Amino acid sequence: MTQQQSARPSPAFVGASWCAMIVGILAYLAGLWNASMQLNEKGYYLTILLYGCFAAVSLQKTLRDRAENLPVTGLYVGLCWTSLSAALGLLTVGLWNAALMPSEKGFYAMSYVLTLFAIVAVQKNVRDLAAAGTAPVASQA
């Protein structure tokens, strides 16, 4: 198996990725904290955030493994796509039916999308830095 050499990400990109992820997560959580919804609704939106983050990272890692000719089953790739689609679908359905102002719905949607994008970028940076030998990692990310 041959592995591609990854370009080392710039410190600016690494920092911007981490900042975007932290801002997205904190904005989403601050919105939940200040929301006037029941605790079970807040739990639903928190679970969707956690599920979406895991699904996005898992899909990114899986697609990168495939690109580097590492063995990944088609079943797992399909499961990753299904999980990410389910997370986005559950957020969409939840916001569509929520008794929130349109601006609040947009806030949750945008902070969610920002978080998913940024967490994928952070995962890519972690893996690229590990491949370049500049990040201490117990196992390959």
TrEMBL record:
Keywords of this entry: Membrane, Transmembrane, Transmembrane helix
Taxonomic superkingdom: Bacteria
Keyword NAD attached: no
Transmembrane segments annotated in the record for this chain: 12-31, 43-63, 75-99, 105-122
Matches recorded under InterPro entries: YiaA-like, YiaAB
NCBIfam families recorded: PRK11383.1 (NF008482)
Protein name: Inner membrane protein YiaA
Gene name linked to the record: yiaA
